[in-house]
Amino acid sequence: MDDIDMDFYPMKPRSVPWPADLARRYIEDGYWQGRTFAEEISTFCGRDPTAIALVDGDATFSYAELDSYSSAIGGRLLDMGLQPMDRILLQLPNGYELVFLILACLRTGIVPVMTLPAHRYHEISHVARVAEVRALAVVDVYRGFDHQGLAMRIADELPSCEYVLVAGSEHADGTIHLHELLDFPTKPEDIGELKPEDIALFLLSGGTTGLPKLIPRTHQDYIYNASRCSEVSGLSSESVYLAALPISHNFPLACPGILGTFHVGGKVVVLDSPEPMTAFKAIADHGVTHTAVVPAVAQRWMDTILSSDCPDISSLTVLQVGGARIADELAKRVRPVLGCKLQQVFGMAEGLINMTGLDDPEDVVCGTQGRPISSGDEIRIVDEMGKEVANGESGLLLTRGPYTIRGYYAAEEVNARSFTSDGWYRSGDVVRMHPSGNLIVEGREKDIINRAGEKISAEEVENFVYLHEAVALAAAVAVPDRSLGERICLCVQVKEGSSLVLDDVVKLMEEQGLARFKWPEYLLVMDELPTTAVGKVDKKLIRDLAIKTLGLDL
Which of 38, 323, 438, 489 could connect to 368 by a Cys-Cys bridge, CB 3.0–4.6 Å? Predict the structure, then answer.
């Protein structure tokens, strides 16, 4: 890496660089190894080619086949005309096609934009436009939704987009069947020189505006993210990792996820749902040792174990729980009910990952959300004025480090709010420090609803509701739910002579192409929404009223 201009050290245009002094320090301290995913993938595929790398239902693939198929897809993408640093939007459910495609992109320098099957036109069109994607890769139909039709619509609207790749049994004229890219298992040649500081992939972030922001992760920072997470979670070549959460999320992708498992030569088993009995069967059949879930899934698993005759899951040694804070009492049940260690994970796609240690005392494991995984992570807990709070007091979490971005992609205004002038990321999380040095997460600064780990902007929900002619005033609030953590309750004041029912709201949001997980599940029509002394809608009082009215005081 001696040829890097450390005075500038850019990632790419429209991205925010790490300052030269920090970049130099991260290299000297060994966090950045000067490697790209092309090298990383060649290394883990070549270590033991005959070992099983990936299982998807009845399909099993060795590391040699993982190498061959991802090379085939990468080569065909380049043959089509895509080039390193071109963007391709991925919207596929968990399966070997998605895994192959991710690796194909990472090794050729084509940049995957990781979206979720739950996203719809509102989110996908925005992301595709900001990323200026040249291709979309989708499934034909998934859970009753026509993803192929959506992709073709967006491709027609977006001048930069030339290709639509489709997985599944049906593909329309003008699209490319994803399986056709597997026909020529040859390594891509002459792809140009990838650099460790190049953008490897884009993850998505939510936020107060609702529309996803693009998170540019570089080769070297994301390799470090995955490899360090694999160490802290105790992965080895003997480990079997179950990926049942959507792989396009940072958590099951690289914390340690599939990339961390491949890094150590372990086996990955993919499912497209964490439904308890399906997951338990996969754990029993394949000897799964590690997996990651959100609190709602952890609760369903424990409830199922206690109420049903289930397959033997004694191979499971580590259950990671993240995406939202798991209630302490629920955390205490994990080891006695599921028979495995709990590892709490609190992190963000922007970077910082915190984990409880596998050997931490039980009270620390169950009562905290972990500590930074890297000695290079820096954190500050501050008040609203930016002054550090006393030890043990609650405050806003700021962070920076060798795998935490310095800014969102093409988002100058957002970056001015989300990052300090000296590069600290304002996470929006309210935390306090436990005597153990671990963090305890107490909530969010902004108006965010956390439904089964998906962060939903209340403002975004409200903005869509105001499209309905009957709505005079609206407030979306979080109400507690034993299964999902929180659900969305919409409280509205309607115009004189008008009426509104929940089906009206659902129909509107479906027509507007809003992801289903953002649809309100409760509707309360109030004569008047309460306001604060300065005339603002009083969200706290509205939430309290909603919880009482719905009988949800858990």
Answer: 438
